[in-house]
Write a structure and sequence with these properties.
This protein has 3 helices and 10 strands; from the N terminus they run ααββββββββββα. β9 and β10 form a beta hairpin. The chain starts with a helix and ends in a 5-residue tail after the last helix. With 189 residues, it is α+β, with helices and mostly antiparallel strands.
Length: 189
């Protein structure tokens, strides 16, 4: 039995109240930064959150942010470092692009990529939702279960370092991706 199947079976046996605690624990702050530096307004709960700023990056990328603390740093022509909550659009660049957060290492496999990333360094849990394109993702820290997952449109990947657990799922609700496409095309008004 693979580790992922073992964890899935174990999680199915956990009562709902305990599972809620595990999921809620994904957002607990860790590290040197204070939790107060992360966004105070949780736009993840909004149906149609309009970003407050955007940045054009190298490699044909554009990042949209909902707070003032989230960042994407271009480390090299082919590497971007993510810390925060953002929507990332990348058209086909002239070379492959890699993404990195404190918990995830990602390599883009198919373009254009549209992904919503929740990866604050201060949190023990992070996630990525893919709306178009494809990427491979693996843990950015040492783990006895260092699996590589391939995410395509409609996939969600969640990771929690405190319990050394990562899981790939299908998105239950893809309306955000549809709304985002309409928003970018100016049809959401």
């Amino acid at each position: 039995m693979t580790y992922a199947r073992y964890i899935t079976a174990a999680l199915q046996a956990i009562p709902v109240s305990v599972a809620f605690i595990l999921v809620a624990g994904c957002q607990q702050p860790t590290g040197d930064r204070q939790a107060g530096q992360a966004s105070q307004h949780d736009v993840r709960q909004e149906e149609r959150p309009v970003p407050i700023r955007d940045e054009r990056l190298a490699a044909g990328a554009r990042a949209f942010f909902w707070d003032s603390v989230s960042t994407v740093t271009v480390v090299a022509d082919t590497l971007m470092r993510i810390d925060g909550f953002l929507m990332l659009e990348i058209d086909r660049p002239h070379q492959s692009v890699n993404l990195r957060s404190s918990l995830m290492r990602m390599r883009i496999l198919e373009y254009p990529l549209l992904a919503r990333i929740d990866a604050h360094d201060v949190h023990a849990g992070q996630s990525i939702e893919v709306f178009s394109g494809a990427l491979s993702v693996r843990k950015a820290y040492e783990s006895p279960w260092d699996d590589i997952d391939t995410l395509r449109a409609g996939d969600l990947y969640m990771i929690n370092k405190d319990i050394d657990l990562s899981e790939k799922e299908r998105l239950d609700d893809t309306t955000f991706g549809t709304w985002w496409a309409d928003h970018r095309a100016g049809r959401d008004r």
